[in-house]
Model the fold of this input.
Amino acid sequence: MLVLAALSIYPLLYLVKVSLTGAHGFTLAHYARLFQDRLFTVAAAQTLLYALAALTLEFFLGLALALLVDSLAHGRALVRVSLLAPMLLRRWLRPSSGG
Done:
C-alpha cells in the first residue's frame, strides 16, 4: 500500500514542480497563458456544466427511485433486494486481492 501511494504521489508532486518552474525559477506564466487560452476556458466551462448536469440528474433520479420504493405497499423487500443484489454479487465475484 505504501509503495502504491508513493508511486501515485511522487508523479503528482513532480508534475506540480515542473508546472511551477520555468527557465528562470518559480513562475505562474504557464497558468496565466492557460487561462488566457479561449479553447481551454470553453472546454473547462463545458466540463463543469456537464458535471453539474450529470450530478443533478443522478441525484433527482436516485431520489425519485428511493421515494418510489418507499411508497410501495407490497413487494418492497423484493424491489430492494433486486436493486442491491448487483452490488453484492460484484463484491462476491471480484477476485480477492490476497490482503
Notes: The first strand starts at residue 21 and ends at 22. The chain has two domains: 1-36, 39-99. DSSP finds four helices and two strands in the chain. The chain has a mean pLDDT of 89.
